[in-house]
Design goal:
heterodimer; A: about 110 residues; mainly beta; seven-stranded mixed beta sheet; four-stranded antiparallel beta sheet; 11 strands; about 0% helix; globular; B: about 110 residues; six-stranded mixed beta sheet; about 55% strand
């Protein structure tokens, strides 16, 4: 089945230690998104890629970066995680002309 | 400017009774509207979408929603709640290819046996 896959599902890191979260898709969608979702809150868009074009939300901290080496993969890098970065990170994809987004299962990040 | 307001942060119903989750939106453009469901520690799953076709939209698991432009509403309903419907529900609005996505704050649905 076509899908959005996130690895790992659970990630534990230490304060200040860089961490990378991974997302892959078999839908061949040209848009990929990263969201941060804290407990009992709505997902918050961090950035998205339209093909190789990177679009950062204005309030996304510089600590968060992303890479998209090809259509299928997208990575979220957190350069120096703080305690406030502990959250669920959701990856999503869509076709450029459509609003419907397909979400992965998420990666829950714990910062010790 | 776009915005989405989910009028209830929590809704509690008994199994077998109707469900109503309310959503109002504000959009300067012709919006696309979506309802997503999120079970604990899972990603979001699309329940249904409105994209300027029929105003009454049927989705998965017996859910439906009606787009009412005059009321700027897109309420989610289900005739009979099931225990497995207990989850968080998000109303979402997008426009112009969907890059700018606005989420409502979410409504937590509790279903009592």
């Amino acid at each position: 089945d076509a899908m959005v896959i996130q690895n790992p599902r659970y990630q534990v890191t230490q304060f200040g230690k860089p961490v990378t979260l991974s997302c892959s898709q078999t839908l061949n969608h040209n848009v990929m998104y990263w969201y941060q979702q804290k407990s009992s809150q709505a997902p918050k868009l961090l950035f998205h890629y339209y093909d190789k074009d990177f679009n950062n939300e204005a309030d996304t901290p510089d600590n968060f970066q992303s890479r998209r080496p090809n259509t299928s993969f997208c990575f979220l890098d957190i350069r120096s995680p703080g305690l406030g970065d502990a959250a669920m990170y959701l990856c999503a994809t869509s076709r450029a002309s459509e609003g419907e987004q397909f979400f992965g299962p998420g990666t829950r990040l714990t910062v010790l | 400017a776009q915005s989405v307001t989910q009028l209830d942060s929590h809704v509690s119903v008994s199994e077998g009774t109707p469900v109503l989750l309310r959503c109002n939106y504000s959009s300067s453009y012709s919006p696309s509207l979506f309802w997503y469901v999120q079970h604990p520690n899972k990603g979001l799953q699309l329940l249904l979408k409105y994209t300027s076709a029929a105003t009454l939209v049927k989705g998965i698991n017996g859910f439906e929603a009606e787009f009412k432009k005059s009321e700027t509403s897109f309420h989610l309903t289900k005739p009979s709640a099931h225990m497995s419907d207990a989850a968080e529900y998000f109303c979402v609005v997008t426009h112009s290819g969907g890059f700018k996505t606005i989420f409502g704050a979410g409504t937590r649905l509790f279903v009592k046996a």
